[in-house]
Automatic annotation (TrEMBL):
This is CBS domain-containing protein. Residues 143-212 form the BON domain. Gene3D superfamilies: CBS-domain. The keyword Methyltransferase does not apply. It comes from the Bacteria. Keywords: CBS domain. SUPFAM superfamilies: CBS-domain pair (SSF54631).
Amino acid sequence: MLHRRTVGDVMTEEVVTLRPNTPFHEIAALLDANDIAAAPVVDDDGAPIGVVSASDVLRHETGMPDPQGQDGNDERAWGKARARTAGALMSSPVFAARADWTIPRAARELRRRHVKQLPVVGDDGCLTGIVSRSDLLDTFIRSDIEIRGEVEGDVLGRILGLEEGTVAVDVRDGAVTLRGHVPESRLVPVVVGLCQGVDGVVAVEAHLAATWAD
C-alpha cells in the first residue's frame, strides 16, 4: 500500500496556546507576534477547551458582536465583545482532529465547519498539534522530483516489483508520464491508478506495452 499522509505528518507540533485566565492584551500580542489567526485555549491537563480567533479579538476591539461594527442581538456575541480573558472570549466547545486522520478527512471538516485550522488531540484528549488549511495544501504542492521518487521507488519498485528502468518516469508540474513495458496489459490500469493515488499528482499519461500476451 502507498503511504498516505495523515494529519500527524503535516500538523504543527509547537502550538501557541492560551489559558482561560490569559488577559485580553496578552491574547492580542501573542496572535500578532506569532502571525497566527487563532490559538487554542487549554485547561490544566493540556486539553483544548476552546479557540480564540482574530475575529474574536476584533469583536472586543469594536465593542460590538460583529467585527465590522454591525448591530447584533446575540447575547453570547455581546459577551465576547466585553470579554477580559481568553475563557470569556473563546469559542467553545472546540472540535478537534486526530493525528491518524487522512488529509481529505481533515479538509472536509475544515470546510464543513468553516474554520481555517483544527487543534489535534491524542488518545488522552490532550493537545498534540494544530493543522491548518495551508498545512493540508502543502501536501499537494510537492516538487516533481519528490513525486518521481515516490512513483519509481514505491509504486513501480516496492509495490509492483518492476525492475529498475523497465518504466521511465517523467514528471512535469505534477503530471506524470510513463513509458516502457509491464509484464501484462492488465497491469496498465493498476499502474495508472496507483500513480494517481500519489500525493501531488495531477494527471497520469501512460505509454505502456505488455511484455507478455495476456
